């Protein structure tokens, strides 16, 4: 009896997963409606998850550029910038360049620009961090637009402590884990690391 109940639960779970596939939903509703609902649910859930971890640990797991990352992961999950490789490497690069810019302009240990206002060293740090991050993302082929926000968050003094870097990256990793599970459940072949060059990034759903 117990085995049969277990089999029934498994069949129900598989049926639910099939019903949640975006292709199945798109056959009943418009593509725009399906994608809007998918982003509403998963964008909210992903940020709630990371925010809850931040609440429980009182650490900076949540930061503004994760919002842009969440949108990309659920709206264009098969695009190169949404791949785990680009997402992780982009945010890491942005944070490191932001820290580098703080040291170049002697701003380590200073209060953030939002507390003290913007001065010339802060202008230099912000400009250098974004310019260098953009340049290196192109050269290294790890483009992830939200990383541009991450480097400004650091260079403007909101996350100036190098000890915060592992926490920042843990937040990115948590968001990626949620995106992997939810995209796969929705029938989207979200990559483990890097999107293949021949993977179509549009037309995931029938028009």
What can you see in these coordinates?
The protein is mainly α and about 210 residues long. It is elongated and about 60 Å long. The protein has one domain (about 30-185). It is about 65% helix and about 0% strand. The longest helix has 27 residues, at about 30-55. The chain has helices at about 1-20, 20-25, 30-55, 65-75, 85-105, 115, 120-140, 145-155, 165-185. It is built from 9 helices and no strands. This is HPP family protein. Keywords: Membrane, Transmembrane, Transmembrane helix. It holds the Pfam family TM_HPP.
> Given the C-alpha coordinates, what overall shape results?
elongated
| Main sheet specs | none
SSE ordering: HHHHHHHHH
- Helix run count: 9
- Low-confidence blocks of residues: none
Pfam family, one: TM_HPP
Transmembrane segments: 34-55, 61-78, 90-111, 123-142, 163-181
Keywords: Membrane, Transmembrane, Transmembrane helix
Domain HPP transmembrane region: 35-191
Would you spell out the secondary-structure blueprint of this structure?
Layout: H1 2-20, H2 22-26, H3 31-57, H4 65-75, H5 84-104, H6 113-116, H7 120-140, H8 146-155, H9 165-185
Helix pairs in contact: 3-4, 3-9, 4-8, 4-9, 5-7, 5-8, 5-9, 7-8
Pfam families: TM_HPP
Transmembrane segments: 34-55, 61-78, 90-111, 123-142, 163-181
Protein name: HPP family protein
In short:
By secondary structure, the protein is mainly α.
What are the main properties of this structure?
9 helices; 67% helix; mainly alpha; single chain; 207 residues
